[in-house]
Amino acid sequence: TKRHHDLYLAEAGSLQLPGCFAMTETGHGSNVRGLETTATFDPVEDEFIVHSPTEQAGKEYIGNALHGRLATVFAQLIVGGENHGVHALLVPLRDEHHRLLPGIRIEDNGQKVGLNGVDNGRIWFDQVRVPRENLLNRFGEVSAEGVYSSPIENPGRRFFTMLGTLVGGRVCVPKAGLSAAKSGLTIAVRYALRRRQFAADFTQPETLLLDYPSHQRRLMPLLAKAYALHFALDHLTDRYVARSDDDIREIESLAAGLKSYATWFTTECLQECREACGGKGYLSENRIGGLKADTDIFTTFEGDNTVLMQLVAKSLLTTFRQSFHEEGTMGVLRFLATRITTAVTERNPIVVRNTDPEHLLDPDFHHSAFTYREQRLLYSVAQRLRNRIKSGENSYDAYLACQMHLLALAEAHVERIVLEQFRNRIENLEASEAKAALEKVYALFALATIERRRAWYLEANYLEGNKTKAIRRLIDQLCLEVRQQAGLLVDAFAIAPSLLAAPIAL
Question: What pLDDT tens digit does each residue of the chain (506 aa) get?
Fold first, then answer.
């Protein structure tokens, strides 16, 4: 609240008061509700006692632990013997001479796979006392008399509202990951436009790597997906900036899904770019290895991707006004009852078999295919949950039994959003060569995604084998066509040479 802003923001912003964010513990990462660190109110001294009761309760992977003087510590708030759940407090770590304060123990996490320019450490607290005013009290306050109050009465809703403040990180991380993927693609594409290998005979010039269909196939769909994610993440940023209380839950789900989808893409993309550059890609000076190492953790920090995708699935199954455990699976099914009638449409046998290129390139076909997959999975998982609950299984076990199905649903949902945002951006462009080029990039993304999910579409009888073969042939053709613009497409990322800094791409 304002009292904390007035006291700390100016010095923190100028780095006179370096700080750190201490949520994750050795024993609890994704399960924030299970944190062991305690903050117990002492009404006699008007202070909180912050304590790590076990070694596993130590804060882990804390950025800036080596230099931070002040930590935002997440702990179980205990007032009058009652646990009010996880809250955040400001806890001083060091004095102005950088000496550790009493009760504070800090260790380095050690060498990491990447991001070693960022310090990470462990922090333990031994009966550390802080003033009552150090409680970050936007969502919960403790009076001098030891009375707890909150503007949000429901503990579950209060917990998720507090965690909702973390959504900004889930907006930034995927954009950072995509920037790394763009760098990798720029390096790999430019190298492939210069590097030659093999020829029909010794009288002919050797063939450029990017003129090989196999090389086009490994890089062009990734380039198309990078463009698709660029527009989707722009959409996420716009939604986040304009957020309100009415749509914050939807934005949190969108951020969780796109963070996961984009950072998984970054990991996959950079590996393919490294391999596409052969031995040159393995040299540190050409940076792909460094980009891989530094972004690998993006799938874990700011929320483990698999856990985040489960949050996306839950938001599709409930209004998420309360946590899944409070609402219960029956609440999920009540919500779905209003949607089941529109969840699945009859498959048109003519469409299932249609291999005409005009049909396969039609954005309506792409959107229908993506939407059908999402709605079919939504309907299916609802039925699975319903059947398990009816058989007497408890909601937690029913959810675990459907976990993989829920992850598939979340992925289908995110892919549909990415497709729609790419299409929306193209349709808002005036006719031009750039728009024509983006139309091909869009079609490549759409069809490559359908091809990637072809096993599901075949099992669901949404596509027949002849149609998936026709899609494969059309993707090959689109890869060739996009290859003609590949240099311009990576140039459009506008990465300065000083930032790209890879000799094989300059």
Answer: 889 999 999 999 999 999 999 999 999 999 999 999 999 999 999 999 999 999 999 999 999 999 999 999 999 999 999 999 999 999 999 999 999 999 999 999 999 999 999 999 999 999 999 999 999 999 999 999 999 999 999 998 899 888 888 899 999 999 999 999 999 999 999 999 999 999 999 999 999 999 999 999 999 999 999 999 999 999 999 999 999 988 998 999 999 999 999 999 999 999 999 999 999 999 999 999 999 999 999 999 999 999 999 999 989 987 323 333 455 556 555 545 544 443 344 467 777 889 999 999 999 999 999 999 999 999 899 889 889 989 999 989 999 999 999 999 999 999 999 999 999 999 999 999 999 999 999 999 999 999 999 999 999 999 999 999 999 999 999 999 999 999 999 999 999 999 999 999 99
In order, the DSSP letters of 372-410 are HHHHHHHHHHHHHHHHHHHTT--HHHHHHHTHHHHHHHH
Are the CB atoms for 119 and 66 separated by under 8 Å?
A: yes
Q: Are strands 47-51 and 128-131 parallel, antiparallel or unpaired?
A: antiparallel
- With 0.90 as the threshold, say if the pTM is over it: yes
What are the tokens at 183?
């760098």
Nearest Cα to Cα of residue 447 among 471, 470, 467: 471
Rounded to whole angstroms, the Cα distance separating 222 from 269 reads 6
Respond yes or no: is residue 302 known to be catalytic.
yes
Burial-class residue 352 by CB neighbours within 10 Å (0-12, 13-18, 19+). Answer: middle
Q: Which of 36, 47, 302, 415 is catalytic?
A: 302
2-151 and 167-318+346-491: same fold? no
Q: Per CATH, is 2-151 categorized as 1.25.40.10? A: no
Asked whether the beta carbons of 340 and 404 are under 8 A apart, the reply is no
Phi/psi region, residue 81 (left: phi>0; alpha: psi -120 to 50; beta: rest), is left
Report domain extents, the chain. Answer: 2-151, 167-318+346-491
CA distances, 74 to each of 58, 85, 95, 163, 179 (Å): 11, 10, 21, 11, 31
d(CA 222, CA 444): 10
Which letter does DSSP use for residue 65 in this model? T
Q: Report the CATH architecture of 167-318+346-491.
A: Up-down Bundle (1.20)
Determine the Cα angle at 235 with ends 403 and 443, to 5°: 80
